[in-house]
Specification:
The protein has 185 residues and is an alpha/beta fold. It has one domain: P-loop containing nucleotide triphosphate hydrolases (Rossmann fold), CATH 3.40.50. The protein contains seven helices and nine strands. The strands form two sheets. Strands 2-7-1-8-9 form a five-stranded parallel sheet, with helices on both faces. A hairpin with a 3-residue loop joins strand 5 and strand 6. The longest helix has 15 residues. The protein is globular, with a radius of gyration of 16 Å.
Length: 185
């Protein structure tokens, strides 16, 4: 299952809730060339790599998807762990951006595409400002990207509105349980 949505919608927070409450669902750890934010742990939140390491992964076809996000850093999903978990029949969740979601859908058309939406534009702006991890220019760049990402909602199989993290988490897990996704428990 792919979980995507605009910046600051809470994808990481919802995925962390799934990780905490439902360890039977494997969650892919993305690689990125950006620097860690305060509190982020290498190998848990992201695999932080150099530009050279990222280039080597791309050249070796080691990424299922990758993209430049917010015109700044590169992000990607390591291919081997996803393929290994799917082959073992384990439910797998990829928390990625819109560009990556499109690439995964092209390579894995059976993947369930889930769009995480904010309850409103104003709430999205509030959440982004509330993170306190980006300056004004970066916030504006991310909001411009968010407008484009929100317009892509109809490309997805299902939408979950993230009004409340716990509810969004359980809605996502229910998709696995219901058999809506290709791998369920």
């Amino acid at each position: 299952m792919v979980l995507a949505g605009p910046t600051a919608v809470g994808k990481g927070t919802v995925a962390a809730c799934v990780r905490r409450k439902h360890p039977e669902i494997w969650i892919s750890v993305s690689v990125t060339t950006r620097s860690p934010r305060p509190g982020e742990i290498d190998g848990v939140h992201y695999l932080f790599v150099t530009d050279e390491e990222f280039d080597a992964m791309v050249a070796a076809d080691g990424l299922l998807e990758w993209a430049v996000v917010h015109r700044a850093a590169r992000y990607g999903t390591p291919r081997a762990p996803v393929e290994e978990h799917l082959a073992a029949g384990q439910p797998a969740l990829l928390e990625i951006d819109l560009q990556g979601a499109r690439q995964v859908h092209a390579r894995m058309p059976d993947a369930l595409m889930c769009f995480l939406a904010p309850p409103s534009w104003e709430e999205l702006e509030r959440r982004l400002a509330g993170r306190g991890t980006e300056g004004p220019a970066e916030r504006e760049r991310r909001l411009a990207t968010a407008r484009v990402e929100l317009a892509a909602e109809d490309e997805f199989d299902v939408t979950i509105v993230n009004t409340d993290v716990e509810s969004a988490c359980e809605e996502l897990v229910d998709l696995f349980r219901s058999g809506t996704s290709r791998v369920h428990f």
